Amino acid sequence: MRKVVVILPTFNEKANIRKFAEEVLAQEKNLPGWRIEVLIVDSRSPDGTGEIAQNLTKENPRIHFLNVGRGLGVALIEGHTYSLNHLKPDVLAQLDADGQVEVDIVPRLVKVIEEGYDLAIGSRFVPGGKNKLSLSRKIFSAGSSFVCRFIMGPWDIKEFGNSARAFTPKLFNKINLERLPWREKTFIIQPAFLNEAILAGANYKEIPLVFKNRAEGYSKNKVINYTYDVFTYAIDARLHKWGINFSFFKATRRAKTLIKFGLVGFTGTFVDFLFYKLFIWYLGMPPATSKGFSTEVAIINNFTLNNIWTFRHRKTSKNIFQRFLSFQMVSLVGLGIAVGIVKGLDLMFGSGYIDLGFRKLAYNNFYFFATIPPVMIWNFVVNHYFTWKHEEEVIT
Ligand SMILES: Nc1nc2c(ncn2[C@@H]2O[C@H](COP(=O)(O)OP(=O)(O)OP(=O)(O)O)[C@@H](O)[C@H]2O)c(=O)[nH]1
Ligand SMILES: [Mg+2]
Fold first, then answer.
1. pLDDT digits (tens, 9 = 90+) for 316-366
2. How far is the CA of 295 from the centre of ligand 1 (A)?
3. Can you list the domains of the chain with their CATH numbers?
4. Is residue 9 reached through a cis peptide bond, with omega within 30 degrees of 0 on the bond before it?
5. Whose CA is nearest to atom 20 of ligand 1?
6. What is the pTM (predicted TM-score) of this model?
7. Which of 35, 102, 165, 348 has the most CB within a 10 Å radius?
C-alpha cells in the first residue's frame, strides 16, 4: 500500500475544513493501492480553524495537524517538510482547503505520478479545465499565468496559479529552497515553486481541474501585491535563466519600502504645508517659526503611517515609544536642516513675491519646497537603517 499525504493550508477556514478534509479522504475509493492522508497546516487562524482541525485528528488517524507562522508559502513548505519527516509519504500533494477545486483532482494527480512523472500540475487552462470565477477574477488568474508563461516560462505550462499539485519526495528534496521566496506573505509561492521545481529537473504534466467560487469564507489573496510580485518574480526568473544572477525580486521589494516611505512623506508634505500656511495666516508667525510647528504635526502624521504601513513587517527589538523617540530625533535633525534652509533663503531673498499677473506668489512657498529633497534623503536613510532596523532574532 502506497501513501499520499495531501497538505491542506488553512487560514480562517472553519466553515470548510471538516467537510473538505473528509471529501479528500473519501477519494481513496478512486485510488486503488493507495492510502490518502491529509495534513492540515494552519497559521494560527483567529476563527478557530486550528481547534477544529486538532479535534479531527482525534476522530480520524488519517488526519494530521501542524501549526505554522503566517503565509501560504510557509504553510506549504513547512507542511511538506513535516510530512516527509514524520508521515513518510510516497507522494506529496497539496490543495486549497476551501473546497474550490473539485476533489477528484487528488487521485488524478497521483495517477500522473504513477505514470512516471515527478510533478503533476492541476490546471484550469488545459482542455477539460474550467475556471468558474467572476469575470474580473478570471482575467486576473488568466493574466497572471500568462505573465509567468511569457516572461518566465516555460511556455508549455498554462497554469502557474493555483495550489493543486502532486510531486515526488525526490523532486521536493532537489528544490533549492534558498532561492524560493517561500517566506513571502503573498501567493508568489505558486509560480515560484513551479519555476524552481523545473530548474531542479522536474518531468511534469498538466491535467485539467475545475475551479469554482468559494462556498464559505473569504479570499486571502491580495490582488495588487500578487500582481506586483508576479511581474517582479517573473523578471527575476528570466534574468536567472539568462545567467544574470541579479536578485531583481528582492531589490524591488526594497524599492517598495522606499516608494511607500516616499508616499508617506508626500502626505506629510501636505499636512506640513497646510499647517505652515495656517500658522502664517491665522497666527501671524514668521515663516521659519511656522515651519517649526508645522513640521512637528507632520512628524506625528508620518510616524503613524510609517509604523502601520511602510515598516509594518519589520521585526525590530525597539518598542513603539523607542521607535517614536528615534523617529522624532531623526525628524528634529531633519527639521534643523529644513529651518536652516528656509532661514538661509529668507535671509538671501527676503519676503518678496512673484507677480503671476492673476495672483501674487510669495517667496516663502519656494522656501518650503526647497527643503523636501535633502530632508527626505536624510530621513529615509536613518529610519531604514536605525529606527525600523530589521533584526532577525528579536529578544523580547
Ligand atoms: N496556513 C495558511 N494558509 C493560507 C494562508 N493564506 C491563505 N491560505 C490558504 O490557502 C488557500 C488559498 O487561499 P484563498 O484565500 O482561497 O485564495 P484564492 O483561492 O485565490 O481566493 P478565493 O477564490 O476567493 O478563495 C486556502 O485554503 C487558504 O485558507 C496563510 O497565511 N496560512
Ligand atoms: Mg480559494
1. 889 999 999 999 999 989 989 999 999 999 999 998 898 888 888 999 999
2. 43
3. 2-218 (3.90.550.10), 254-387 (no CATH)
4. no
5. 221
6. 0.73
7. 165
